[in-house]
């Protein structure tokens, strides 16, 4: 067994090494560090924290073992005046009892075991144990993965669970916890597709909308299941996105290949037009309050706009054109009724029954995978990406290929610019990016490469030398943020 303290010492030594010192050998204040030094120090502290969490989980599991109920008052926790090991750990570390209980659960799931004969046995979740002890993932990510695997233990095969555990541990490295949660949700749908429909029925039964007045404001508190939330989220996102794009256009755009193309397309009637309700929601650039609205304020205004339109409109037309709910499902799953489907912008997968029901509704596009269409590649005959190509890019990239934002918050961009580099308008030269990541790539010298073809391609981001002197490519798109067993 590796020495856990040795790993801690190495991680602490790394923090000491990357923290700059003055001529006297004293570590300088953090406000004197440059960008590269701050990033290196933050990375080293993150590695140290993960090492500490791994050791703490192992200690917590042993505290729990020596406090097991059958020991009664002789248990470690009760002898020290605490009713449970979780309460002991919470009180002595300043965390919550819930966090302490999760620490214990991770420790018990990743600690080596003993059989009834006294022989050594591997940990219950060996891949998580290895990734945790090596410092590749932290305790929160390990807890999310372990909890899901334990939930499906009776309904998924041993080999499938082992494959999912190994893949999740590999993908979780370097991801934020909410991104790991998305991966875990997709993995659970793959391991236990039959469990989705009962869960959806329960979620539909819990949907609610509360309205009340307090402090001069009307409060809305809604809980919606994925099927109910999909059209609401698509409509609000479409209005808010149209506002942001209109404000940028009024401000003169960003001067890139794609922004110029979008403006040219609007002048020639080929752009992405919104209906009057979306256009009317955008205030004049002269309105000084408009740019100062927060995202929650914009979403509230979008909801008001939809309601006002519904009350004042004499026709049955949809309030906004182009606010589309996209349900993605494989042809084999749709035909056989197995597996699961996903909805753009919604993290939780849905059952095939829900996908079929939504596909029969208006305003929903069922994106069935399994065939390859030549229409996805238009070469240089068209400057703007077609709606079909944008759907295919969303299938390949899963949203912003660099940060993972939903497809509705992205635009299709040429990797090699259409005008400057004679880049073709096809999938191999396209990528979905949010506005922030688009600026980051162009302003800071990142490069993009596509490996493979069509919706099965993989997007790689090559950092500039000032970010990574070795310029090691970083995987992006659905291969990074999505789940594909």
Task: Tell me the strand percentage band.
Answer: 5-15%
Content-based structural category: alpha+beta
Q: CA-to-CA gap between the ends?
A: 31 Å
Main β-sheet: number of strands, strand sense, barrel status? 4 strands, mixed
User: Largest sheet, order of strands side by side?
Assistant: 7-6-5-8
DSSP summary: helix tally: 19
Helix content: 40-55%
Query: Overall mean pLDDT score?
Result: 82
* Strand element count: 13
| Rg, Å, rounded | 26 Å
Sum up the overall morphology in one term.
globular
Low-confidence stretches: 254-286, 371-378
Structural account:
This protein is of the alpha+beta class and 485 residues long. 48% of the residues lie in helices and 13% in strands. The protein is built from 19 helices and 13 strands. The strands form 5 sheets. The protein has a 4-stranded mixed sheet with strand order 7-6-5-8, sandwiched between helices. A 3-stranded antiparallel sheet has the order 11-12-13. β11 (447-451) and β12 (458-462) form a beta hairpin. It is globular, with a radius of gyration of 26 Å. The two termini are 31 Å apart.
